[in-house]
Amino acid sequence: MPVVTVRPWDLARLVGKELDVNTLTELFDKLKLEVGKIESDEIVYEAPHDRLDLYSVEGLARAIAYYVGLREPSKFEFSRGDLSVDASYAPSYRPYVFMTIVRGVKLDDEAISQLFQLQEKLHLTHCGNRELVSIGLYDLDTVSFPVYYREVSDVVFTPLGSSEAMSVREILEKTEKGREYRNLVKEGHYPLLIDSKGIVLSLPPIINSEETRVTERTRNVLIDVTGTEPYLMASILAVMTTSVYERGASRVEVVRVIGGKDFNEDVVVKALSGKYVTVSLERIRNLIGLEVPVNDVVGLLRGHGYIVEHFESAENVFNVWVPPYRVDVIDEDDLVEDVAISLDYNRIGGKIEPPTHRGLPHRIEVVSRSLRDILVGLGFTEVVNFILTDPDYLMMLGFSSFIEVENPKMRIYSVLRPSLLPGILRSVSKNVKKYDLQSLKIFEVGDVVDPKTAGTRRYVAGAIYGPGTTLTDGLATTRTLLELLGFKPIFKPAEGNVLFISGRSSIIEVNGVALGVVGEVHPRYLKQMELSYPLTLFEISVEAVAEQFK
Amino acid sequence: MSEQRKIKLPARQYSIAKVVLELKTANVSEVARLVGRREQDIMRDLAELEKRGLIRLFKKVLYRIELSELGRKYLVSGLPEEIVLRELIKDVRVPVATLRNIGLSDDEFEAALGILRRFGVIRIQGGFAELVSSNISRILEYVQEIKKELEKYSSPTVVSEVPDNLKEVRRRGLVEVGEIKELVVEATDSLVRDFNMLTPVDVVTVVTPEVISLGNWDSIEFKPFDLSIEPPKLPVARKHFFTEVINYMRELMISLGFEEVKGPHVELELWNFDVLFVPQYHPSRRPSDVYILGSTASPDPRIADLLNSVGRYHEEFRRYRWDQSRALRLVLRTHCTAVSVRTLWERGPGEYRVFTIDRVFRPDTPDPTHLMEFHQLDGIIVGSRVSFKDLLEFFREFSRGLGLGEVRFKPAYFPFTEPSVEGYVKHPKLGWIEVLPGGMFRKQVLEPLGLKGYNVAAWGIGIDRVAMILMEINDIRDLYTDDVREIERTPVPKVVLSAGRHS
Predict the structure, then answer these.
(1) Is residue B127 very low, low, confident or very high in pLDDT (cuts 50, 70, 90)?
(2) How confident is the model at residue B1 (pLDDT cuts 50, 70, 90)?
(3) Residues B25 and B48 in one domain
(4) Is A354 contained in some domain?
(5) By residue range, what is the domain housing residue A326?
(6) Statement to judge: residues B142 and B255 lie in one domain
(7) Using CB atoms within 10 A as the burial measure, which of A88, A125, B66, B100 is most buried?
C-alpha cells in the first residue's frame, strides 16, 4: 500500500486549521490511514489501496475538513471546454487519451511535489505501473491547441530533467525513465502528445518534455491520461483533476477528444460529475446491525463529503451524490461503511444472534485427533513439517511424482509433498544427530497434495527407530492403532517401493481397502541420512480410515 | 513404665549404636569395620542417629606417623654415627680414609661426623679420627633414644597429637608425619541412658510381595524419603504444542456454534481471487505475492454459470476486461477465505456458521516473522439478518475465549468486504497489535454465488501470530519445529489449561 508523505503546515493551510497529534491520529484511523509518523515537519502514512484520493495532501486535507465540519460538501463544478485533443492517429496498442484543464491555481514547491507524489503513487498502484494508464501534467500556457495524440516513428525533444534534445531511441537508452518503461512502447510506433506548433508535451507513458513542465509560475494546468482502460483512465483523471483543483483553482474544463476510437470526453464528463447512489435506512440498519436514527444519517454522510440530494420519506430512501474522487464507492454498502465509521466501530455492539445449528468439527479432524491420542499413548511424539519441500530430497528417496510451484523463493520449498514419509525420515535423522539418540518414535498427522489430482489428502505417518527395530514393530503399531479404531487390518506383501527393503514391507488393508503402507527403510537411505540403526516407517490415509466409518 | 517404652531403630542403626556405646568414642572407619559395612554405606545411618540425639559426630585431625625409607634402613643397620663410633671403639685412632670406606654414603658419613663432633666424642687431626672417650656415654644415650623412637613407629601409628620426643627423628627425616581428618563418633548421654529401650527393626525401602504379606508392619520401618533431592525427569511422548493450540481454537469455534469445513491447498484463482471480487490487476495477484503452479484447470461445467456472472460483475463494477482463463489458473491458496466462498457456493442461502483452520501459502523467505506457509482461521456467519455488529461481537467473544482481552477496532480495506474492520488486541510487550481482520462480504461477492438478499460476516485470522502470543514465542519458525526435545519439554499451552474459566 502506498506510503504518503505530507507537510503539517501545508495540511493546515489546506484544512484551514492546525490540528493536534491526537486529533490527527483519530482522523487517520477513520480514514483507514496507518500512521507512520506525525512530527512537526513531516507526516508519513500508509494509505489504503482503495482511497486513491488520499495519496496526496490535497485529498487528505479535503477529507479532514469535511469530517471536522470546517467545510460543507458541495458538488464539483466544471465545464466542457472548446479546446481539443486529436486522437485520430493514436497508437493502436495505447489508443485512448483524455484531458482536463484546471485554471487559476497557485503552486509552490510543496504543492508541485505533492501533485507529483499523487501522480507517482497512482502510476504505481491503479495504473499498473503505467501499463494501463499514464498521467501527465503540463503548464497550459506553454501549449498551443489543438493538441495531437499520435503514433510517430521518431521525434526529437528535450525530456524532463535534461538539458539537451534527444531522439526517442536516446531517451529510451539514456534516461532512467526511458530504461524503466521502454518495454511499454513498440519500437518505431511511439505514442506522442504534440501541440499545433510542434512542441512535444510528452512521450507517454515514458516522459514529459522540459518545455511544458509545471513550475511555481504555472497558473493553468493541463492534465492528460493515456492508456488502454478508458474507465480506469477517467477515474484516475478525476482524482488528479479534483486534487489539482484544491490548489486554489477557479475553473475546470474538459478537453474535447476528436477522432477517438470508441470513446470521447463524455467518459470524463461522467466521471467528474460524480455518481448518485441510493441507500435505504433499512439497509443501513440491516448491515450495521444498529437502529441508526433516521435524522442522523444525513449528517453522518456529510462528514464524508457526500450530499443527500433527496430523501424519500415514504420509503426511507436517501439519494446520495458521491464526489468524483471517491472512485472506491461502488454501491450503497460503501456508504453504509462510512456511516458505521462515523458511528465509531468501538461503539457498535450488542448481543450476537444465537447460532441456529450446533457446532461440529470436520470428520477428518475427528479421526486425526483419535489417531494422535493413540499414537501418543504408544509412546510416539508428534512433529510438524511443511507441505512445501525440497524436490532434490524427494528424488533422492525415489519419489518422482509431485507438484512444483513456478515461482519459488527457495528451491528447498518449491514442491508440494506427495507423502509424509520423506519429512518424517528427515525429522528422525535431524533428532538422532542433534541429540545422539539411540532410539526414537515420532509421528505426524498432516496434509499432502496428490500429484495426480492436485487434491489435498490427510495422512498419518510414524517412525520407529533404534537397535533391533524390524517390520514387526511397524506391524504391531499399525495393528494396535487400527484395532483401537475398531478395524481388523490385514497385512499383504508390498512390492516396488524403493524406500523399503524388498520383502520387508507391507500394505495395510481393512475391508479389502488399502489404507497405507509399513516397511523397513532400506540401508542405502539409512546411510544417506546418517542413521546407524534400523528404521521402520508407516503411513496411513486418514480419509480412507474415515471412509470406513460410513 | 519406662521399660515398656520402645524406640524402633533400623537394624543396622541399632548395631551401630551398640558399637558406639561400647567404644564411647571411635572413628567412623572403625565403627564401619565392626558392623561389617563400608564407611560410605553407614554415613546416612550415622546422620539419622545423630538427628535422634543418640550419637555425636565431629571431625578430628589425627596424625599418622611412620618410618621414612631412611628410618627403616637405620632401624636395621644402625645409625651412621653409631657405625662410625663402633669403628673408633675398636681402634681408637683410625685414618679418615678408612672410615670413608665402611659402607656409608658421603652424606651419611659427613652427617655422622657432624653428630660425633657435636657430642665431642671425636677429634680429627692429620688425616686421622681419634675417639674422645670421656664423652661417650652421652652419645650412646642419644643413639638409644633415637632407636627407641624408630622401634616405636616401626609400624604406622595414628596419634591425636605429635609427641615432643619425635622432634629429633623428624628433623633427621627418619619419620614421616601425615595429617588425617577423621570423622569421629561419640556416644551421647541419651544413648547411654536409653540404649535399653532401643529395638532393632527391619527397614523397607521398596514394598515387596513379602512385605505386603507380612501383616505385622509395626515390626518394620519404612525408609523415609529425603525430599530435598531432585527427582529424575522422565522421557515422555507428546502431541505437538501447535496442534494443541489449533485444536483449542477449533473447540472454541465449535462451542460458538460453527461447523468446520475444508478446502484444497491447490486452488483456482477463481476461488482465491475472482469470486472475492479481487480485480485481476490487483497487486495481491502478482507472482511476488502468490505461488503459481503454471497450469490451468479445464472449466468444470458446474461452475460455467458462476464464471459468467463473476466476469460480468468484475466488468460492470471494476470497469476492466476480465479474463476467464486467468480465473482458471491454479495457485496455492493465499488465504482460507477461498474455503469460505467455496462453502457459500456449495450451501447457498440459509442461516449457518462455518469455519476452517488450515494452511495457506505466500512467497516468502523464512525469518522470525515470515514463512512461506502458515495457518489461517477463516469463518463466516450467514443469514438474512447477520450484521457487522455480529462480526464485531464475534471478534470480542473469540478474543475472550483465547484470553486476549479487550479488542479495539479500526476501519480497514479489503477488496471483498464492506464494511471492513481490523481488530487489535493488547500485547503485554508490543502494545496493540492487529490480529482480527474481517468484514461483511460485498454484494459483488455474494450475488454471483446465489446469495442475493443475504448478509455474510467473514474473517480470516492469521493464527500463527495469535499462537505466538499465547505461547510467548518470538520466532514463527518455532511453531513448526520437529525437534523432539522442544516438543516434549514445552509445557501445555496456558490457553489450553485455562479453558473452562469464565473470562
Answers:
(1) confident
(2) very low
(3) yes
(4) no
(5) 275-347
(6) no
(7) A125
* B265, B444, B484: residue with CB nearest A442: B484
Of B363, B366, B421, the CB nearest to A345: B421
A422 phi and psi angles, rounded to 5 deg:
-60, -40
In this structure, the answer to whether residues A239 and A136 fall within a common structural domain is yes
Chain A residues whose CB is inside 8 A of the B259 CB are 357, 359-360
Q: Do B258 and A355 touch (CB under 8 A)?
A: yes
Question: Residue B2: pLDDT above 50?
Answer: no
**Residues A241 and A143 both lie in one domain:** yes
B115 and B217 in one domain? Answer: no
Checking if the pLDDT of A88 tops 90, the result is yes
- Between B162 and A288, whose confidence is greater? A288
Same domain, B275 and B321: yes
Cell (9 digits) for A447 = 496434509
**B400 touching A (Cβ < 8 Å):** no
Would you state the pLDDT for residue B448?
A: 97
pLDDT at B502: 54
| Per-residue pLDDT at B501 | 62
Query: Coil, helix or strand for A192?
Result: strand
B291 and B361 assigned to the same domain: yes
- For residue B146, what is the domain's CATH number? 1.10.10
CA distance A31 to chain B (A): 7
Do residues A101 and A211 share a domain?
yes
For residue A362, which residues of chain B lie inside 8 Å, CB to CB?
260-262
Q: What is the pLDDT of residue B4?
A: 54
* Concatenated DSSP letters of A209-259: BSTT---TT--SEEEEEEES-HHHHHHHHHHHHHHHHTTT--EEEEEEEES
Nearest to B484 among A346, A352, A440 (CB): A440
Q: Residue A51 falls within a domain, yes or no?
A: yes
Burial class (CB in 10 A: 0-12, 13-18, 19+), A154: exposed
Interface test with A, best of B295, B343, B347, B413 (most A CBs within 10 A): B413
Measured in angstroms, the CA of B387 and the nearest CA of chain A are apart by 5
DSSP per residue over A46-61, as a string?
EPPTT-GGGSSHHHHH
Nearest-angstrom CA–CA distance, A408 and A385 = 18
* Residues A222 and A118 both lie in one domain: yes
- How many C-alpha atoms does A384 have within 13 Å on its Cβ side? 19
Contact B399, B425 (CB under 8 A): yes
* Residue A200: Cβ within 10 Å count: 21
pLDDT (0 to 100) of residue A252: 97
User: To the nearest 10°, the Cα dihedral for B321, B325, B326, B332?
Assistant: 160
What is the tally of structural domains in chain B? 3
Indicate whether B349 and B215 sit together in one domain: no
Are A502 and A537 a contacting pair, CB within 8 Å?
Answer: no
pLDDT at B503 > cutoff 60? no
Distance between CA atoms of residues A390 and A403, nearest Å = 11
Residue A480 predicted with pLDDT over 70: yes
B120 shares its domain with B12:
no
Residue among A184, A213, A39 nearest A119 (CA): A213
Distance CA A492, CA B69 (A): 82
- pLDDT at position B89 is 85
Q: What range defines the domain where residue B376 resides? A: 241-484
Q: What is the pLDDT of residue A343?
A: 95
Q: At what angle do helices B136-152 and B80-90 cross, to 10 degrees?
A: 140
Q: Are residues B91 and B133 in the same domain?
A: yes
* Cα distances (angstroms) measured from residue A67 to each of A10, A299, A524: 18, 10, 72
Residues A52 and A104 in one domain: no
The percentage of chain B sitting over the pLDDT mark of 90, rounded to a whole number, equals: 53
Percent composition of chain B: helix, strand, coil (DSSP 3-state, to 5): 45, 25, 30
Handedness of CA B91, B96, B100, B105 (dihedral sign): positive
Contact B243 A356 (CB under 8 A): no
Q: Average pLDDT of A428-453?
A: 97
Same domain, A257 and A288: no
